[in-house]
Amino acid sequence: MRQTLEIAELVEAAGGHGIVCSASELTFIRQYLGRPVFAVTPGIRPRGAPTQDQARVTTVEEAVRAGSSLLVLGRAVTSAADPRAALALRVGDHQTLRIAAGRYHQPADPTQLDPIYGNPRLGPLTADHVIAGYEWKSEFGNVRVEAFHKQYTDLVTQDSVTFYANQGHGHARGVDVFVQGTYRWLSGWASYGFLDARRKELDDPEEVPAAYGVRHSLTLVSQYLATSTWSVGARYTYEETRTFARLLATLGVEAEPLAVDRLATILWNKDHLILAIPSGMRQAPHSSRHRQFSFR
Asked: How far apart are CA 70 and CA 64, in angstroms?
């Protein structure tokens, strides 16, 4: 830091109009010089984004707070362009056709970017989405059908040389159906989803079924208005989850599903009782994360 402050002082003495420095150093430079200074700050990254070859990075918010005059955002923009497009076509008064496509990027987990036990050069994970849908809607009800395909590239895999690398891939494809209607005092809706998801990531030797995938899901909801103040409702939910192959392989257990619903999946055999409990509401369509416990 001392060398940085001395260089800033030399620039000022030579009549320089500004400096180029990390935003993490700018606060100290301004305090040392005792006045505002025009500062160009590279190494600006979104929070959690890969640092690439930059040793000292800051977010846009941190750089502005430090007093940066000009922010340099290069690969944070050019290496993560996410083009997206959507089109809707109205057919008559009640029907609509939709199609959409886009590319999405997600930074690797911060622990995988560790400069000592990870790979700070990891790039973002990439997903290309294509969705096509049909909707019929009127005052009596609504019907929606959507089919989707997601292609994953640059997933993080384990590497014997660099700890981690962007060599994984996979896909997710499926169909969602939603039907809602009302007839006199009875109303309700039903939804069904099918998902086929496979990924090669971390130590997977090839594409395997995604651990979070819910292959079939069905929800039925109904409500009957008995009087102006009383109503009776019912709800049924079914989800067919995949067996937790990685967990069972780690424990060396051969287990069979005992019960499956939205709240918990119970796997058991004579030696183990294994619970897989969702950690919260779904964070994205077709994705569910679980906490896993083993009791012996």
From this structure: 9
